[in-house]
Design brief:
2 domains; globular; 7-stranded parallel beta sheet; 34% helix; Rossmann fold
Length: 329
């Protein structure tokens, strides 16, 4: 019996196709860790995070380690996805109980604990405890081998791309913008000012920004004077815009993968990225707000790309189920 956990919107998007593929084939149950409080759980069990402490990351760890043991009854493996604090915490809880750990999206690295924070720490720690690593790329697998991580390692692509099979991309005069990462909160005002200037200089482009609900982001929305600021979108609507846009400005990890699958170019607003396989083809690193105009203009002049996606072919969940059934490589 595999316990599949998720606690954030991106985690749900990445485990959803795997759950579909496993249904009726491999026994599992689902645990919602509750890291994102504004999503409806689709699970057998729900954790409740105690918010009494002053630090939410501490609260997530403490609450997860205090889980009801009934949730682990009959569980032989715990599957965690990615690099959230709740993923790290549940992996640690499994490790303490000598339950085997499956890590989905294993081996991504920046080797900078502050970028992204706290995700780089979380995923490095998860890798040390993991028994079965499902890596999106060969480079991710190499990272694990360099670090001397134990366990079995498989390159399967990223399950997020399984959601995009059949989506036909177009190039319309739209620019999708998403900014939310914790490490950008201190400079989000500068990013928004530069994005607004870009939108003013390119009136033929419709800049669309679904505003993130985090108050550290939302409080600066008024700076986006020439940008169409909208409420957060559900996944299908976001993918619809992504599939039809001209290009993307984002600090999201998942969008780098999805955009490359749909052959869209992304200006990545971060100091570094763990998804380096698409740098220079689908993604272009923009380390500072002051660099945004130059990089955007270069990408905008040659916005089309037609290259294979380095993060998978849309069949990751099928490959994982075959491996877990003992029929894979």
């Amino acid at each position: 019996m595999i316990l599949i956990s998720y606690g954030t919107r991106p985690e749900w998007i990445k485990i959803k196709p795997l759950i579909k593929e496993m249904t009726g084939v491999i026994p599992f149950k689902v645990l919602f860790t509750g890291q994102h409080l504004d999503i409806a759980p689709r699970s057998n069990f729900n954790l409740s995070i105690n918010e009494d402490g002053p630090n939410r990351l501490d609260n997530i760890v403490k609450s997860t380690l205090s889980l009801d043991e009934k949730m682990l009854s009959g569980v032989t493996h715990v599957l965690v996805q990615g690099d959230t604090t709740s993923a790290f915490s549940l992996a640690l809880a499994a490790f303490h109980r000598k339950i085997k750990i499956i890590h989905l999206e294993a081996g991504l690295r920046t080797n900078d604990l502050n970028n992204p924070y706290p995700e780089e720490f979380n995923r490095q720690c998860i890798s040390r405890m993991t028994d079965i690593h499902f890596c999106p790329t060969e480079r991710n697998k190499k990272n694990l081998n360099i670090e001397g991580c134990g366990g079995k390692k498989f390159v399967v692509g990223n399950t997020v791309l399984d959601n995009l099979v059949g989506v036909v991309p177009e190039y319309r005069n739209k620019v999708l913008v998403t900014l939310h990462r914790r490490e950008n909160h201190k400079t989000i005002q500068n990013w928004f000012e530069q994005i607004s200037k870009l939108a003013k200089c390119h009136p033929y482009l419709d800049f669309i920004l679904p505003i993130h609900p985090n108050p550290n982001v939302k409080k600066h929305a008024k700076l986006l004077k020439h940008v169409r600021v909208i409420e957060p979108l559900d996944y299908d609507k976001l993918i619809d815009i992504l599939s039809k846009c001209r290009l993307v400005i984002s600090d999201s990890g998942g969008i780098q993968e999805e955009a490359s699958f749909l052959n869209k170019k992304v200006v990545v607003c971060r100091k570094t990225t763990e998804r380096i396989e698409s740098l220079g083809t689908h993604s272009f690193l923009c380390k500072l707000p002051s660099m945004l105009k130059r990089i955007f203009d270069n990408v905008n002049q040659d916005h089309k790309v037609d290259l294979p996606c380095p993060y998978g072919d849309g069949r990751s969940s099928q490959k994982i189920v075959e491996i877990l059934n003992g029929n894979g490589r």
